[in-house]
Write a structure and sequence with these properties.
Radius of gyration: 24 Å
Helix content: 25-40%
Strand order of the largest sheet: 4-10-9-8-7-5-6
Structural class: alpha/beta
Order of helices and strands: HEEEHHEHEHHEHEHEEEHHHEEEHEEEHH
């Protein structure tokens, strides 16, 4: 039997203190009824009462919450030495070698260690600008690359929501359309027979030509290999190939952000950029690298590293590459390999997409099911033909999955109508079936509520019974049976 972890304060006091001494802009999952999570194990999380939740949210806990080999590696190294990377230490070199051995080819060959994805992407921008001697960056609409000022500038997901002047898009940042063929700027149904990769790549081409006419050049193009916050977007085949060619011909470098989608999550490949048959000039990694411990890296070509060195500005990061972080990262990469978690992502991810796709027969609310490995998006729509976002329904599903089925999912995308699944990579077929059972019940409930709503609009007002009351009575009947 699983016991809950220790509490310092009861939950109501935790909430009270958080509201008082933690910044109000620090967001919470399930804001109206937040969870107090005190312990994790594998693909499960436990609240202060010992309630067990299936975690479909945490791509951070790559190899599962509190994996014993990762915990042991960190604890052991912490008991020996943890210091900054200005001292020689072999753990950093082993970590760099582990990263490099999983990369295709030999062009990406120099590592820098950092603490987070935000730091990784900030450094990537500096490297690109040092190498090209240009400042202009191309990013994708709805992208998120971090919370530093520099990375907020390249994150439409953030600056499009803000009225604050410090997170506005500057003139040297250019936004290309996100290659979302389902409900993006250019939809597959409107461009039948067209090469959608080229249709979207032309947006980047137009930006490059505009910048050139203004007498400047392109420093770089940055994109997640699979876009997460934008709604679990899988790019059309060949998109990154075409874009990388355009950017490189313009003198810019190509940055692949794998902070959320690296380390085998795509299933077919260790790195998600490989699914597009490209190799970037700069690769950024973080979250899954440490299984919850803050560690990240930037991997670049030797030419870019030399350009950065020639600026004369030394790079130093107090905690980036420290022995404890590197020991943990090494343990994570070893577990992924030893436990064949990349293969598990492919097997379970394909099963999950197949079975979720089958639900489309019974539920028109599902407009699209997409993903690679254990990176899956389920887009909910009110009308399949118009592809109208079903935002309220997605919120209903997220809340009901937590409250009734004890399954943690989230919603995202420009209209918050995409159910996101990016669980720990130990997520198995039984977990997938548990999700599918809960998800089907949520969709059935929505269908039932819509049916009752339709009936009540057709009967006299003195006979109208609320949808919620009918459903409540029906539930009571089922329970009594």
């Amino acid at each position: 039997m699983c016991e809950s972890g220790a509490e310092i304060y009861p939950k109501d006091q935790t909430i009270e203190l958080r509201n008082k001494i933690i910044g109000k802009s620090c967001s919470l999952f399930y804001k109206s009824e937040p969870l107090k999570i005190v312990r994790g194990e594998g693909q499960y999380m436990f609240d202060e009462k010992g309630t067990k939740y299936l975690d479909c949210i945490n791509n951070v806990a790559t190899v599962g919450h509190c994996h014993p080999k990762v915990v042991q590696a960190g604890s052991k190294q912490m008991g020996i030495i943890s210091t900054n990377s200005r001292f020689l230490h072999d753990e950093m070199l082993v970590c760099a070698q582990n990263l490099l051995k999983h990369l295709p080819g030999d062009s990406l060959s120099v590592c820098y260690f950092v603490n987070s994805g935000s730091e990784a992407n900030d450094l990537a921008l500096r490297l690109a600008r040092a190498h090209t001697k240009q400042r202009d960056i191309i990013t994708l609409d709805h992208a998120y690359h971090g919370h530093l000022l520099s990375t907020m500038e390249i994150s439409p997901y953030k600056f499009n929501q803000s009225s604050n002047i410090d997170v506005k898009k500057p003139d040297y940042i250019h936004v290309a359309s996100c290659p979302d063929v389902y409900r993006g700027k250019y939809r597959d149904v409107d461009y039948r027979g067209c090469d959608m990769a080229e249709v979207y790549a032309n947006d980047v081409k137009d930006i490059v030509e505009k910048v050139k006419k203004e007498g400047r050049g392109i420093a770089g193009y940055i994109a997640e290999s699979l876009q997460s916050c934008g709604g679990q977007i899988i790019y059309p085949k060949g998109y990154l190939q075409k874009v990388y060619d355009i950017v490189r011909k313009a003198g810019g470098v190509c940055i692949s952000d794998e902070v959320q989608v690296g380390f085998g999550r795509a299933g077919t490949h260790y790195w998600s950029f490989e699914t597009q048959d490209v190799v970037p000039d700069i690769l950024t990694v973080a979250k899954p690298m440490g299984n919850g411990h803050p560690v990240g890296a930037v991997i670049v070509t030797r030419e870019i590293a030399e350009s950065f060195a020639q600026t004369g500005v030394m790079y130093f990061n107090t905690y980036g590459g420290n022995p404890v972080s590197c020991a943990i990262a090494n343990a994570v990469m070893n577990v992924i390999e030893d436990e064949k978690l990349q293969e598990n992502c492919l097997l379970v991810g394909d099963y999950l997409k197949l079975k979720t796709g089958e639900l489309m027969v019974d539920f028109d609310l599902i407009g699209d099911v997409r993903g690679l490995g254990l990176f899956v998006g389920i887009e909910l729509v009110k009308d399949r033909k118009l592809r109208t976002p079903a935002t309220e329904e997605a919120t209903f599903v997220v809340d009901r999955m937590k409250n009734v089925h004890k399954i943690l999912v989230s919603s995202d995308g420009p209209d918050e109508n995409v159910i996101k699944l990016k669980p720990p990579m130990v997520f198995n077929k039984d977990n997938a079936d548990q999700f599918l059972e809960g998800f089907r019940e949520c969709l059935t409930k929505l269908k039932e509520m819509e049916s009752v709503k339709s009936i009540t609009t057709q009967i006299p007002c003195n006979l109208t019974i609320s949808a919620s009351k009918i459903i409540e009575n029906r539930e009571l009947t089922v329970k009594s049976i």
